Amino acid sequence: MDYPAPRLLTDDESERDSIRTGESREIGEEVLQDLAPLALPELRSMVHEMSHANSVLKLEAAMFEKFFNRMEPRDLTGHLPPDRHGSSLDLGPAVYSRGRRKSKSRITADRLICLTVEQKCDLAQRELEETREDIQRMKENSERVLQNYLAALEEADIRVVDIKKAIVDFEKDIVNTITKKKGSIIASDKVLRYMEDKIRSRDVLKEKIRLKNDSLKVQKKKMQMQLRQKEELGEALHEVDFQQLKIENAQFLEKIEERNQDLLRQKMTVGNALQILNFYKRKLQTTTSMATRLVKDIAQRKESLEKIEREGILVEKERNKAELLNKRLRKQLTEYRVPPVLDYVHEKIAVHELENAIKIWERKVEIAQMALQSYRSVWQKAKLASHELQALLPEQVAR
């Protein structure tokens, strides 16, 4: 096996290597001198910060490498002068001078040459667009594959239905006949005829599908010719038109977002207005109910007030009557003179005699009522006897 011969270093490369080794030694000494007075927690925090910065730089380097790999050769050399080679992004000069040693400040300036913020933003934007395009392509591919699978499933379902139908028809037309007529020539002829009919129907279906495919191919050729004619006439859309459409689409999306935000604000305003309206509706309802209740209460109070006024008039009349009676009684009381005691005794005796007379008369009335009852009983008996006598007299006269 032949190994490639080692490449000889040129004067520029050897000088560059020597400069780099010298720079690394000087930088290492400076770093050690700067880190010597620091404590262990400070060194740990510095290590943490440096690791974070290194991870960020690694991400940027990976993104730049992906961007560089995606670039076409014309992007690498087409936009540069003949004496320079590099990417479309201007990374700054990186040529080392010959014949002399660089100072520390020059070494630091060359070492810190990197992408600017605008270049990083441009690179990130282009990488984001590429990623979005990749995601869109993946979505389209996945949708295409999904549609293919769905079409295959639909075709399989149709074929399963056709097979089941063919099985049912075969069992109904052939199997039942063969089981009834075993060893019959008619059954075998029927099977052959069934197979020939199926083959003929498949041929007819195949011819229909072939004609449909031919018509679709003709339509495809027509569409391709029309597209080619449009491209020749310059009617086809170019990359600039797509970019313009993207910009317009972005503007319209911003307007739609603004309208959506405005609509959302209007909805919130309408919701707040509805809440306030419902609150005032409830308040109006309670107020109206309170007003009706107060109207009824006022009417009842008016009725009670009228009743009280009428009662007051009656009471006033009764009071006037009572005052008149009181005046009359007071007048009688002032004019009243106590009779002598002897009159009182005579009156008391008279009352006692009257009471005794009443008792005597009451006893006499009781005796008279008892005599009346006896007389009535006698009268009833006499009456009954006269009725019996009158009843007997007609009988005797009849005899």
From TrEMBL:
Domain CCDC113/CCDC96 coiled-coil, first and last residues per copy: 200-373
Biased composition (Basic and acidic residues): 16-26
Keyword ATP-binding: no
Compartment(s) of residence: Cell projection, Cilium
Keyword annotations: Cell projection, Cilium biogenesis/degradation, Coiled coil
GO cellular component, one term: ciliary basal body
Positions of transmembrane segments: none
Biological process per Gene Ontology, one example term: cilium assembly
Keyword Coiled coil attributed: yes
Pfam families linked to this entry: CCDC113_CCDC96_CC
Coiled coil feature spans: 114-159, 206-371
InterPro entries assigned to the protein according to its UniProt record, in alphabetical order: CC_CF, CCDC113/CCDC96_CC
Record-stated family: Belongs to the CFAP263 family.
Protein name, per record: Cilia- and flagella-associated protein 263
Organism of origin: Eublepharis macularius (Leopard gecko)
